[in-house]
Predict the structure of O-succinylhomoserine sulfhydrylase.
Amino acid sequence: MTKELELETLAIHTGIERSQFNEHSEALYLTSSFVFDSAAQAAARFSGEEPGNIYSRFTNPTVSTMQTRLAALEDAEVCIATASGMSAILSCVMGLLSAGDHIVASRSIFGSTVNLFSNIFSRFNIETTFVSATDPMEWQQAVKSNTRLFFLETPSNPLTEISDIAALADIAHKTKAWLVVDNCFCTPALQQPLKLGADIVIHSATKYLDGQGRVLGGAILGNKDLLMDGGIFAFLRTAGPTLSAFNAWVILKGLETLSLRMQAHSAHALEIAQWLEAHPGVARVYYPGLSSHPQHTLAMQQQKAGGGIVSFEIMGGRDKAWHVIDSVQLLSITANLGDTKSTLTHPASTTHGRISQQARDAAGITEGLLRIAVGLESPEDIKADLLRGL
Ligand SMILES: Cc1ncc(COP(=O)(O)O)c(C=O)c1O
């Protein structure tokens, strides 16, 4: 499939390899292993002399279709699908780094990612220095002789801080480190980090790539040398955090509507953000599409639109924040995001509840903060629902 096609077309047509039945929709290959014609062919497949499927922990045709499609959308040479977003981050670090290496990471990243870096990788002598998402000088100053990897999310979860991908890629490359960007909030429909200089893109496919809150999945994207020969695929194939064929099928069908959905999520989120900004009970609204956002200009250079996540600081702290949550009838009280259904979360006691108070304070996650992952319902109905508690 030629790369000259537009993203919306690539999302629908890339990666299809029809079976002998000539099906129109992509086939779902639910099989653990694949059969060989002979002992010689089995040996050739295992030695790598002959390409082809062996076992679904290594490769599977449905997973390959999803990988090829997402690679086309991110403009990446290669995509490796994983069982979840967290296993994508795990596989990336375990594949590329060794004991004694150092990571510089944004302070404003998903709570489980903070935990993985500070409490698990540290046990294997991979240390992480956390720095401001928005100040490239801090990244520069945190670099050590053993720094191998920079890690960030932009926009960040939940405060929608914007990191300057091109500027941080420059700093990373001068120190011979790789820049890894978690592109969960924007997806390639709104932002393509590899084009801005990032080396690797990470996805929690659980979110917008599926888009309907059905399955867990993840992905690692980048060039072939780094992903296939650099150790990431070898880690995944051996350790096994592989994406199931069923989940790959659900996600690849989700990709077909990704661009339409991201435009609608962004339009609805902007409307809700503007409405919240005008509400007297709201102290502050965090949304990159608002002109009041401190990095609105950078966001609009890097992103096609603001995305679907709006966070806001309510006056009255935890009590008032929980009251808003307990008053909704339409929004779902759940921590997931990227669904057609809008979700409402209190980050300080849920997604970021297991990190230390000090880390929460440093990341700006206050007791009055609420995060809405704006879905595809009518924005009027979402506003009416929020108004019950506000
Ligand atoms: C930005 C971000 N990255 C990674 C993850 C982890 O993804 P998963 O739950 O698929 O492991 C999440 C989950 O919420 C997330 O919000």
Q: What stands out?
A: The chain has a mean pLDDT of 96. Residues 84-86, 110, 153, 157, 182, 184, 204, 206, 216, 218 surround pyridoxal-5'-phosphate (CB under 6 Å). The chain has two domains: 7-255, 258-389.
